[in-house]
Hints:
By secondary structure, this protein is of the alpha+beta class.
Amino acid sequence: MNIKEQQYFYGISMHKFRAGNAFAKYRKILRDVYDGNLKKDFYFENKYLATEDLRPEVYKYDDSVIGALIESGIHQKMIDLFGYELFLCHVQMRIAYNENDFSYMPWHRDTYLYEDEKVIGPIPPMKKVIYYPKFDDLENNCLMFALGSHLNAKHIKEEDLSQLNNCSIMKIKNSVDEYLILNTEALHHAVPPENERQMRVVYSFCPIGQLDHHGNLDLHNEYTKRLNENLHSE
């Protein structure tokens, strides 16, 4: 099974960042944020219990936040995997803490339709690039993912979650240079870190016609500008 087939049938694939200048700078600024050494006018905010999110706009923190994506050719990689062009619409940088093994986000889909017949989440569902950086050789499990569950959504919540008893579950650990691409409509679960804390950087992508839904055209404009600059520099 090739990588495109894996993405379709499993809903997830693993990749490596290119070891270039942008990624080296990216690792450095992530380490600074991880250690709490923030640039002026940036701060942490609690969005979920046992987590802190960088504010205000992650992509403005440093040019390497987008630069690492460009350097590694992730825009074209998404086209190759999904067959159409996707654009960056949201970036999150979050640190999760170990507080009595509490998960801030248990098993869920980002887009679903359950008994109340109210659609939750964007249509079509977003695709995400997620990086769980590893520092100081501290290993953490970060995500559990139910392989193929995006192809079999149930509309009764209890029935939907009961599929986990028969699904193959993939466990994702932190890494120095690996990132994942996932279908967000699959069942997945944020795992609390075994060690004190774990950072995650989450990039959300959507088709161009969906950008108005997310309302961050400044990010889209910056992303496409950087794509064009990279294209013309080659």
